[in-house]
Write a sequence for this structure.
């Protein structure tokens, strides 16, 4: 027998037994005051699944199905409740948004928009860094997949670096890559529709709070963080990666690239029209009352009707495995309140964390620091996000905060790339750029991002007070 395969089988067995053991032990504990036997079974299942998730014992989509099924099998919740979030407004919004993103990517519209914006900026290093940061911000809310945007933008970054005369793995190339990575990837949380994470955050919120966060309200709450991220990243790139000599793109570089694309195709025109209407309806949701999910589903339906997307694209362009896992996380979070686990966590942990929750500046910095430290141990961003969000939301409610701030803080803090295997989207973007830089060169930018992001969250606090998100 292959020794490597045998070792993997042994490790898998250890992980499976560890998760099962923890789950059975927790489920068998006599319920403390405020909880019921069903609550303990829920916590046992939750602990088992989290161990499997953290140790990567089973694929996430398999865990999702097992998680929801276990709630029904062990009589934690009826089928309609255990699987109910798969038909929720949030899931429909996410499916529609991912469909729209697939249409924009396939039509080629994003390439054209990116080039048109970038040619408006000076052709030197400073101008192109500013161009990438601006372009990523503008196109960000159009596609809810950071990887899809980065897969398109990273080759652009490489081409610009080469045309500026930068060598591979030079300081300047690292600076261009940093701007692409931040603008098209890590700055996504400033918009609800810029990544799947935004919809996951929305789905974790209790119902009264979920309805508050329309597309516009999210932007109103997140824009100070985004402004600090973009401005701070520009300054950090200038400090860390500016080339020693001035470099300049040829005057007609942008025009040549646009000419190579040719005139706008029918699919691009249709996609641009559909997206313009969709964005207007998203921003004005409070006026007309049409939910964002219905707008997204209709826009996707129109793209399918006008053949921007074909039937096979539904199978290949939408990450159904990720959607299944997100649906399971939403179902898990929806059970916290009926089982009174949220109030129990607040009662038990609240007094111990009162020094942190009594000051919003300390709370923001404390949660960010906890996430930064956890990411050195928990390599999965999804696992980090799930664990911290689910546990800390009840504490935010206990402290009188709008619970939205917890998953938002966790989300923006978990996107670091200090270790090589810490961020799979970062590695994929590095590969898409043709390895124009190295992870070692980018570590400095990750450290800068942690500081800038925390400052950005602090900058949000006055706005959060004005919006009533915090007292």
């Amino acid at each position: 027998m292959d020794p490597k395969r045998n070792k993997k089988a042994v490790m898998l067995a250890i992980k499976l037994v560890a998760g099962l053991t923890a789950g059975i032990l927790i489920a068998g504990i006599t319920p403390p005051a405020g909880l019921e036997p069903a609550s303990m079974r829920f916590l046992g299942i939750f602990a088992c699944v989290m161990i499997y998730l953290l140790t990567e014992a089973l694929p996430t989509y398999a865990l999702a199905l097992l998680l929801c099924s276990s709630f029904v099998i062990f009589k934690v919740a009826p089928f309609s409740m255990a699987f109910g979030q798969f038909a929720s407004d949030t899931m429909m919004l996410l499916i529609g948004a991912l469909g729209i993103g697939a249409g924009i990517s396939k039509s080629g519209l994003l390439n054209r928009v990116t080039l048109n914006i970038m040619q408006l900026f000076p052709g030197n290093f400073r101008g192109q860094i500013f161009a990438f940061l601006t372009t990523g911000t503008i196109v960000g809310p159009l596609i809810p997949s950071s990887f899809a945007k980065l897969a398109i933008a990273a080759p652009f970054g490489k081409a610009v670096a080469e045309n500026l005369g930068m060598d591979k793995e030079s300081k300047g190339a690292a600076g261009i890559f940093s701007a692409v990575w931040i603008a098209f990837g890590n700055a996504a949380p400033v918009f609800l529709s810029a990544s799947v994470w935004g919809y996951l955050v929305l789905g974790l919120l209790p119902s009264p709070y979920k309805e508050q966060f329309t597309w516009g309200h999210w932007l109103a709450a997140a824009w100070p963080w985004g402004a600090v991220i973009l401005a701070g990243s520009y300054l950090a790139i200038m400090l860390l990666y500016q080339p020693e000599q001035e470099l300049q793109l040829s005057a007609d570089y942008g025009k040549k690239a646009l000419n190579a694309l040719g005139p706008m195709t029918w699919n691009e025109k249709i996609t641009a029209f559909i997206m313009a209407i969709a964005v207007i309806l998203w921003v004005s949701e409070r006026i007309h009352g049409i939910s964002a999910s219905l707008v997204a589903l209709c826009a996707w339906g129109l793209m399918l009707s006008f053949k921007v997307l074909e039937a096979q694209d539904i199978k290949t362009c939408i990450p159904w495995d990720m959607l299944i896992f997100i649906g399971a996380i939403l179902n898990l979070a929806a059970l916290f309140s009926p089982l009174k686990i949220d109030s129990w966590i607040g009662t038990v942990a609240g007094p111990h964390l009162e020094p942190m929750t009594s000051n919003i500046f300390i709370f923001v910095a404390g949660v960010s620091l906890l996430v930064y430290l956890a990411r050195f141990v928990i390599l999965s961003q999804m696992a980090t996000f799930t664990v911290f969000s689910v546990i800390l939301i009840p504490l935010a409610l206990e402290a009188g905060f709008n619970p939205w701030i917890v998953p938002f803080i966790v989300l923006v803090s978990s996107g670091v790339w200090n270790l090589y295997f810490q961020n799979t989207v970062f590695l994929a973007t590095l590969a898409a750029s043709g390895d124009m830089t190295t992870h070692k060169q980018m570590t400095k930018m990750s450290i800068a991002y942690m500081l800038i992001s925390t400052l950005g969250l602090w900058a949000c606090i006055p706005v959060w007070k004005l919006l009533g998100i915090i007292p």
The mean pLDDT is 88. The chain has 25 helices and no strands. The first helix runs from residue 3 to 27. The chain has two domains: 3-82, 109-264+335-467.
